[in-house]
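Work package 3, deliverable 3.1, input record:
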Amino acid sequence: MNIVFNFFPVLLFLAFLFLLDSFQLVRVKTLIMCLLWGAVCAVFAYFLNTLVAEKWAVEFSTLSRYVAPVIEEMMKALFIFFLISKKKIGFMIDAAIYGFAVGAGFSLTENIYILFNSPPEYNLLTWIIRGFGTAIMHGGCTSFFAVLFVGGINRSGNRLFAAFPGLLLAILFHSGFNHFPLNPVLQTLLIVALLPVAFVLVFRLSNKKLQQWLEIEFNSEVKILNMIRKGDFGSTKAGEYLKSLKEQFKPETIVDMYCYIGLYLELSIIVKRNLMLKENDFEIIVEDDVQPKLNELVQLRKQIGKVGELALSPLIRMDYRNLWKLNQLQG
Amino acid sequence: MNVEILAAADYSLVTVEGRVDTTNANEFEKSMLSVVDGGATKIVLDCAGLNYISSSGLRVFLIVQKKMIAIKGKFALCCLQPEIKEIFDISGFSSIFSIYADKEAAIKG
């Protein structure tokens, strides 16, 4: 019975979140990596916490309330930081799930250790509190860090700046939980009752944003690409803007910009189409020429250069979400 | 947007006119699902009067297509205006749906 309360709540919660991902943004391989990272963090955090406690003679209550939350949340956050640096997370939904998976991996490993080294006074209630309270708290903290981080990076673009508020909140929440301000059973009940509601709200908001994003860009992109293919791009406002750049850039750079816009739009439309297909459980369409086109886009981006890209920013801005979008076509 | 539904013996003909966008996609979805839930095994969507469709509208098409596949039914689009057809072609949705040039072909197909 102890094992059931040790493992199942957090895994069930993770499965619940995974099922809420209607656009299927989460990749199973990355999810497993998150769980593994969480497990690795738990091992390292154990040694680090022990080292700090022994070296500075920190009492257990101080360690669990002030030191462990900082060490553990920072370690768990590292993998989310890595995923965001690699543009593997696009929206709050995938951020929440990956974050929760890191926390789940952490708490599962921690609970395995405690299961084999538990003091005799540990009873069923302790395992219920650990399984439903502590474990889900670990997942929730990293999850909310990831959600705030991805929200911040889509707004500001600066990774460190975007990561800070979420990390601070995760540490504060973790520390607050370890203070046990309420009766542990009540605290656990609150987590079990409130966290799913919070996740559902976050997912609804994210789904709405995703749909708005698809709605706003999809049609205008199709329209502009259509004009490019018909050779009518010059008559559009975007085309006029591109013409206005002729005096500042070499003719071959203008040609590259023209190709870059067309290629970018084509790939962007493919990603959005695939998202819409995935949302409705259709097999995505895999075009054979996507990878060469992606390579060409990267090459064109280099040839245009930073200044050229800046000049094109009123038409195409390679912000975090756009880079994430193109990343969806890889592999 | 204006939607008209005509139930024939072996198919249901839905005629859509105007724009299908975020503001009315839910209404369009309800109309389409009422046809699906009514037991139609073949739905022909006449798009001759459809002059604008956004991604919200395309999502409704996908929902209907998914439901019709699940009951081994058929969902056919016909009479798409060139601008609308281009949206399907450019985005690659043409390969997902059965698209016919005219109503008769869609009913027969």
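Strands of chain B lie at 2-7, 12-20, 42-53, 74-78, 98-100.
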